[in-house]
Amino acid sequence: MAIKGMNCLAAGVVALGLGITAVQADELYTPNMTYRTGPFAATGIPIMNGQRDYIEMLNARDGGIGGIKINFDECETSYNTNKGMECYEKTKGNAIVTQPWSTGITLQVLPRTNVDRVPILATGYGFSPMSDGDTFAWAFNPPVSYWDGASMILQYISDGDLDNLKGKKIALLHLDHPFGKEPIPLIEKLADKHGFEFLPIPVGLKEMQNQSAQWLQIRRERPDFVIMWGWGAMNAGALTEAVKTRYPMDKLVGVWWSGSDDDLRPLGGKAKGYKSISWNAPGKYSVIEDIRSHVVAKGNSMIGSEDDLNKVFYQRGVVMSMFMAEAIRTAQQKFKIAKITPEQMRWGIENLKLDGKRLEELGMLGMVAPFSMSCDNHTGHGGAWMLEWNGEQFAKVSDLLMPDRSEIEPIEKEKAKEYAKNNAPWPGRDGLACE
Predict the structure, then answer these.
(1) From 3.30.230.10, 3.30.70.20, 3.40.50.150, 3.40.50.2300, which CATH number describes the 4-144+282-372 domain?
(2) Does pTM surpass 0.85?
């Protein structure tokens, strides 16, 4: 089924790229820095469609959140850091939250948060030490950080005991970009402690679609496992090379941004056995039916077909906007006002609590693991599942995996302290009360 809104996609991208939608007095402005164009568009679009449709559903079904509509403006960055900063400057004046949608952009915005006092919501991405709320009072990256992800992947491939990796070789095929470099400090630490060899293999932005040199190195080095930290065109390029070189698919494991249905479908059964960790579990949920009824059926979605509603990345976008919406609701209930401020939104994110009961009320029980935030925990660390490509779709093949916080927290504190020192004077919580 073709979706009516898709006819206007090209024009819509141009308009969204301006990031200057007029903000009305009776709405909340929650801009999102998207990339529907450029080399990362193939994986960005389905997630951003899910994000947008959840907010459209709340506006159509409920009249917004707490009786006030949400203005979900999109500002196109093409995953370019300079364009991202332009979007931030255009939108920050009216925004109650900023969603950078790139680790590189997040790192650029991060020092500004203490001055502009607009909270960063970097859902499942960004700088892992942002979990330290005592240092990064205005930044949040729920429900799990990249270091959590690296920990969970290593636990999975080691059958729950990293000492089982002793003497083995673990390659990290990663985008040569701040995002791709994120897991390196933790994996290096764990390799030293548990006696496995760590082999980072960078993929430049210009090499994403032609990774012959990287896969020649993989054939030569013969690693026991390859962890893929990819995004956009890099994922399809890597998976195609893995099939071509006959690398065992059950030894290739991706981060959650390397698990898009659209990257695997062209390979079909040839990619069977490939795994990707994911903090959202795909499935049939009543929230998706509400989106179908209130948004898709009315021609207000930008999806290509209703099949998109079942994809891992689309549903992840839905979860991401749910986090934001529930933080808004939390702040509204605390301050007893619908038109909350950025400072109140910061409190709402910091005090976000999603238990099983609330997830069931939202029609999302099982879609994401319960978690809660606090003053000193700006990630939540809710855990994730391992998904496996069965030739046609992704299916959950593990119980909920949890990061080893005893290994991660010390390095989080160390790197947060290092960041504050390098950016001195760094205000930390700057007098913000912990409630």
Answers:
(1) 3.40.50.2300
(2) yes
